[in-house]
Specification:
single chain, alpha/beta, UDP-n-acetylglucosamine1-carboxyvinyl-transferase, Chain, 2 domains, 4-stranded mixed sheet
């Protein structure tokens, strides 16, 4: 699939933010581990989250889906061993959460995925699990999938480096209530993406499991998740493309289902577009962005929000002055090396981009940016961010744009509702 984006004069209207991918992943796993039946409202059905739902089914959780809800029967922690190798496609979150969860299944589990997933680093999690007496290893001895996980989660104390991915810690915390003894995890060094861990603690609390935190140490006693009715909130990561589109255009756009008190780190996108020159009005469950198209470059640390790198880089390219992105070295370990691929594709569009070890420096000059044929590199966030350039310049063709289905299946329709011109073709 390819996207062809034509120049748009104005964006206007009201749209609903898609459900949070991060919360949907966690809701599926917690409902699968809980005692009883959970009704999950407004879940995101995307390629990544469906990988989690099918993994939960393989571990023994039955489910029934409809457009606006998913009913899941929990296992109470009494998992089944998947009958075959689990193919988790391209979902790094699924791989990481399922790795620890597999240790409470009765027999040996094998996890794998597509070519991209098999390049995602897993050794920090495998090393931390070893100290908790979990036997888990890479079949190729390279710290990457395919992984073999044997039965047995003793518990105890472990530590983990905090400067690569918060998903390692979230993985341990989610399954820790079913370890044989209490689990304590200390995060060493710089603690990046902490909002994602707070998101994990938030939803665990809603499913009646308590995580005690002091500084960078987390403690989980033996407990049971309890089933519940739970509604998934809107996704700030996906809404970032809509907010950014409004900022670069003459616009007035309202995005519903975005909660002011959300734990999502990517809600910083509202502060970013506001600092660059857009007007932002926040309400309890919605936000309105008014743009004039005149933006100024800023310096921003994305340590807690690496998924915003492509979006902020595009904003910088279409602003005047320097935009400096720092703190995002861990963005190199996503679906692609997001710093490198973002710089590479923006340069094709005329942007002045310098790649640094932990970020990007963009010398904004919206007059120099032009349409071009660009590549998604299999990265859903890069594909959607690059499409925004086409709103200003026209003539942007994005190859392999179907990857947007990983997190935001309705992206093209949402943008068209606001007035953009996106042609989708094979």
């Amino acid at each position: 699939m390819q996207f062809k984006i034509e120049k748009t004069d104005r964006l206007e209207g009201t749209v609903k933010a898609p459900p949070s991918k991060s919360y949907t992943h966690r809701a599926f796993f917690l409902a699968a581990l809980a005692i009883g039946e959970s009704k999950l409202g407004n879940p995101l059905y995307s390629e990544d989250t469906l990988a989690s739902l099918l993994a939960c089914h393989a571990f023994g959780s039955e489910f029934d889906v409809s457009d606006d809800r998913c009913i899941m029967e929990g296992t109470g922690g009494n998992l089944k061993t998947p009958v075959d190798v689990l193919d988790l496609k391209n979902s790094g979150t699924t791989l990481r959460i399922a790795t620890t969860m597999a240790s409470i299944a009765p027999e040996c589990t094998v996890l794998t995925g597509d070519d991209s997933l098999r390049t995602r680093p897993m050794q920090p999690l495998l090393g931390a699990l070893k100290k908790l007496k979990v036997t888990a290893y890479s079949t190729r001895n390279n710290g990457m999938a395919p992984l073999v996980i044997k039965n047995g989660f003793k518990g105890g104390f472990t530590n983990i480096q905090g400067n690569v991915s918060s998903q390692y810690l979230s993985s341990i915390l989610i399954s820790a209530p079913y370890a044989e003894t209490p689990v304590e995890v200390k995060v060493n060094g710089e603690f990046i993406s902490r909002p994602y861990v707070e998101m994990t603690r938030d939803i665990m609390k809603k499913f009646k499991v308590k995580v005690v935190s002091e500084d960078n140490t987390f403690h989980v006693d033996h407990q049971n998740y309890k089933s519940r009715d739970y509604t998934v909130e809107g996704d700030y990561s996906s809404a970032s493309y809509v907010a950014a589109a409004a900022a670069i255009m003459d616009s007035e756009v309202t995005i519903e289902n975005l909660f002011k008190n959300s734990q999502q780190g990517d809600k910083i996108i509202l502060d970013i577009v506001e600092q660059m020159g857009a007007r932002v009005k926040r309400k309890i469950d919605m936000v309105t962005v008014r743009g004039s198209g005149d933006l100024e470059g800023i310096a921003v640390n994305l340590e807690d929000s690496p998924d915003l790198v492509p979006t902020v880089a595009v904003l910088g390219a279409l602003a005047q002055g320097e935009t400096r992105i720092t703190g995002a070295e861990h963005a190199r370990f996503k679906e692609t090396d997001r710093l490198s691929t973002t710089a590479q594709e923006l340069k094709k569009m005329g942007a002045d981009v310098m790649e640094k070890p932990d970020g990007l420096i963009i010398n904004g000059n919206k007059g120099a940016i032009h349409g071009a044929t660009v590549e998604s590199h299999g990265d859903h966030r890069l594909a959607m961010a690059l499409s925004l350039v086409g709103l200003k310049t026209g003539g942007v063709l994005i190859k392999n744009a179907q990857v947007h289905n990983i997190s935001f299946p309705g992206f093209a329709g949402v943008m068209e509702k606001l007035g953009s011109k996106i042609e989708v073709f094979k």
